[in-house]
Amino acid sequence: MARIAPVNARGTRDFLPRDLVRRNRVFALLRETFERYGYEPLETPAIENTAVLEGKYGEEGERLLFRILKRGRELESGVRALDALPADERGAASLARSLADEALRYDLTVPFARVIAAHQNALVLPFRRYQMQPVWRADKPQRGRYREFYQCDVDCVGSRAMSVDAEMVAIHCEVFTKLGFTSFVTKINHRGLLRALMEACDIPEEQRGAALTAVDKLDKVGLEGVRDALAKAEIADAAARTLMEMISVSGAPTETIARLRPLVGERPDGQRALDELGAVFRALAEMGVPDERVTLDVSLVRGLGYYTGPIFETVLTSSTLGSLGGGGRYDQLIGMFSGRELPCTGISFGIERILDALDEQGIALGEAVTTTQALVPLFAPETMAAAFALAGELRAAGINTEVYPEPRDLKAQLAFANKKGIPLAALLGPDELAAGAVVLRDLRAGTQRAVPRGEAVAAARATLGME
Amino acid sequence: MARIAPVNARGTRDFLPRDLVRRNRVFALLRETFERYGYEPLETPAIENTAVLEGKYGEEGERLLFRILKRGRELESGVRALDALPADERGAASLARSLADEALRYDLTVPFARVIAAHQNALVLPFRRYQMQPVWRADKPQRGRYREFYQCDVDCVGSRAMSVDAEMVAIHCEVFTKLGFTSFVTKINHRGLLRALMEACDIPEEQRGAALTAVDKLDKVGLEGVRDALAKAEIADAAARTLMEMISVSGAPTETIARLRPLVGERPDGQRALDELGAVFRALAEMGVPDERVTLDVSLVRGLGYYTGPIFETVLTSSTLGSLGGGGRYDQLIGMFSGRELPCTGISFGIERILDALDEQGIALGEAVTTTQALVPLFAPETMAAAFALAGELRAAGINTEVYPEPRDLKAQLAFANKKGIPLAALLGPDELAAGAVVLRDLRAGTQRAVPRGEAVAAARATLGME
Lengths: 467, 467
Hints:
Two copies of one chain form a homodimer.
Chain A: H1 17-36, E1 40-41, E2 47-49, H2 50-53, H3 58-63, E3 67-69, H4 72-83, H5 92-99, E4 100-104, H6 109-118, E5 127-136, E6 148-157, H7 162-179, E7 184-190, H8 191-200, H9 205-216, H10 218-232, H11 237-247, H12 253-264, H13 268-286, E8 294-296, E9 310-316, E10 323-329, E11 344-349, H14 351-360, E12 374-376, H15 384-396, E13 401-403, H16 410-420, E14 424-427, H17 430-435, E15 437-442, E16 447-452, H18 456-463
Parallel strand pairs in A: 1-5, 7-8, 12-13, 12-14
Antiparallel strand pairs in A: 2-4, 3-4, 5-6, 6-11, 7-9, 9-10, 10-11, 14-15, 15-16
C-alpha cells in the first residue's frame, strides 16, 4: 500500500472528539443564549464571488484571501490572458485576479450584508441574526492563530433604538457569566463622542485617525504611553493635553456623562452621543445587567473604521489575554450591496480566544472528555441479546451508550472505557443474567455495585448525576 | 454608495432562518442519535493538501476539486513554471497542478483516513466517530444538486465484528423512524457473496465489473432490463441466466441464506460471506430492529469499489427518490495513509436527499418557522423596564423571547411577529401594569387572555405546549 504523509494543510487543525466535547459545549451555550434573545441562525456558503469580497478588507486583507483556482476552459483562457501581461504587471495580485473569481469567506459581516441585500423581501426587519461559521485567512500561522477559524457574530439590522445596543452588551454579559468567567467587564463608548471630543480639542481632521490610534492603546501602555504616541503623531501639545484629560474622565456612567457634557459643548452630534450612551446604560440597568459588569470608557476606540455609534468591548480584568469580543453600531456598512442605508448594531465573540481564556482561567466546563457516557461490555455470544437490550434501554433513557463490538476479556474492555474516559460500565454477563442483576461500575471512582435488572437504568442515570 | 450585485457563488446557497429551523432539527436528531450509540464527533479542516486528495476520486473527481490558488511568491514561481510548459501540456489539469497545492474537502472518508493515520496514538480503537460537514464539488449545478453540500458519515474503525455492521443498520432504522418516515427498508448484501456468485456463474474476472453494474440496476429497470444490460455487456447467456436466478432469490433472510448456500458451493469466501450475513441479521433481531425494516437483497451492489464485506442501502418504498443513504464494510481503505490495514465499517446519510424526501412525504417536523417563540412588544418608555423584566423571566424559563426594539403602534408590532411566524406575544403595557396582569396573545389561534403577572411564565409555557 503506497503511503501518503497524513499531513494537514498549513495552519489548519483536526478536531478530535476530546477537543470537540469542550468546543461544542461552548458553541451550544452561545447558540442557546442567542436564540433565547430571539436571534435566528443564518448560514452562508464558504465560497463567495471575489467581486463580493474585493475592496472590503484593504490591501492586506486581500492578500490573505484563499482564492479558488478557475477550472477547465476558464482556467486555460485565464492562463492565456497572463501571457499577454507585461512582465512588470505579473505580481501575485494581478495573477490572482486572472486565475480566480471565487474565494473563501474572510469574515461574516460582508456575507451578512450580501444576504440582507439579496433576500430583502424574505426578511422581516428588524432582523436579529447570529452566525457561527469558519472563516479563512492565509495569515502566517503561529501559536493560537490559525488559517481556518470560527467567527461568531450577533447583529440586529433595521433599528436605531439604543435598547438593541444595550441588548448586545447584555448578551455578552450573560454568555460570559454562563461560561463561568468571574472577572470581566464590558467597556462602552461612542464614536460620535470621540469625534466631538477631537473637535473640541481642535485636532484637525487629518490627524484624528492617528490620535484615535494613540488613545486606543491606553489600557496597554498607560497614560504616559498615550502621551508619547500623541507626541509622535505630532498632535499639538495643548490639544494632546486636553484630549488626555478627557479620556481620563471616569466613574459611574451618569456622572461621567454629566462631566463630559460641558467638554463636548454645543456640538449637537456630541450631545446626541451622550444622550445615546445615557439610554444604553439606562436600558442595561432595566435589563438587570449588574453595574460592575459595564463601564463607560472614553478611551475605547475599536479598530474598525465602520462604527458610527455606541461601541463595546469585553475584557477579562484578571488576564492579559485581552478582548473576548466586542462590537458596535454601524449604520452605513450593511447597505453596501443594497445601496440602501440600514441601521445595524452587533457584537462578535472571539471564539478561539474564549477557549484559550477558559483554559487560562482553569474553567473546565464539566469533566467529560467524550460524549459517550456508558460502555456495555460483551461477555459471550449467549449474553449478547441481553446486552443489546440493556444498551437500548440506557439509550432510551438519554444515556449515550457504546456496546463493545465483540466478546472479549473484561479487563481489556474496561481498559478501553478508561482510556476513552467513559465514566460508567454496565455489566450484564452470564452471572448477572442468572442473578437478574446488572453490575454498574463507576470508572471514575473505581467502585461498583450490583442492582436489580429492573432498576439498572435509573441507577445508571443516578451514577452519572443525571438527576 | 457603489452598488455591488449581491450574488452567491455559482451552485451555493444561503440558509435563511426559515430554512435552518428545519435543517438544524434534522442535524440535531442525527447528532443526538449517533452520540446515543457512542459515536463521537470529529471535524477536519475544509482545506486539505492536494497530495492527500489526489488519486482518490478518479479523473472525474479530480476535475471537480475546488483548488486553492497559490499566493505571493509561490504563485509567481508557479506561473513562471507554466511558461516553460510546451503548448500541448497546458491543459487545465496540468495548469491546476502548477498553480495549486491545496483544495477543498471532497468527501469525508479521505480526511477520516488521514486523521486515523495522523493521530494513531491519541485514538483508542475501536473508534466510533461521526462527521457532518460540508464538502465541495464543482459539478454542474442543477435542481437539488449543489456545489457546497453537507455529508454525514458514521464509521467504526478497528473491529471486524458483525455486531458493528448490524449497528450501522440499526442507526439508519432509528434515525429514519424518528424523522417520521413510515415506509422504508434497508437492503443488505455482501460483496464476498457477490464475488462468489460471479465465480459460481463462471463470469470471468474482467467482466465482473460490468455484470455488477447491470445487476445494480434491478430496482430501476426490472429483471428484463438487467437481462438486456447483461447481454449488452456480452456476458455469456448461460452465465447471465444463472446470475439472474441467483439475484432473484428472496424471502426471509435465514431462508435466503439457506437457499444461497448450495449456489455458492465450496467457495470458502462465499460461505463466510453467508455466515457474516447470518450474524448481521441475528444481531439486528437482538437489537430489536423490526423484521420489516431489513431485507437481504442479493441484487444490491453499491457503486463504490472499496467495499469488502456487508453492504447496506436504505430506500423509501413509497417514493422514486431513491436511496436515503447507505454504506458497508471497507477493510482496506482506511490504511491508505498509515500503511496499516484497519477494518472499518460505516454508513452515510444523504442529508440533502433526506430533506427533499421529508418535503415529498409531507413531514413537517413541527410547525415552527423561526427559533423565536415569543415577542414582548414595547408600549412606552415608562413600561420598558417591566417588559425587559418579563422577557428575562420568559428566557429563564427556556422560552426564546424577542423584545421589540422600541415603543411603537401595537398593531405594527404584532404584524411583525405574525410575518416572522412567532407564535406568542406577551403584552405588558400601561393597562396590564396597572392591573398586575399580562395579556398572552396566541398568534396562531388569534386568541388572547389576561393572566396574573405572577402566572405569566407558566401560562406562556402552557400556551406554547412546553409540557
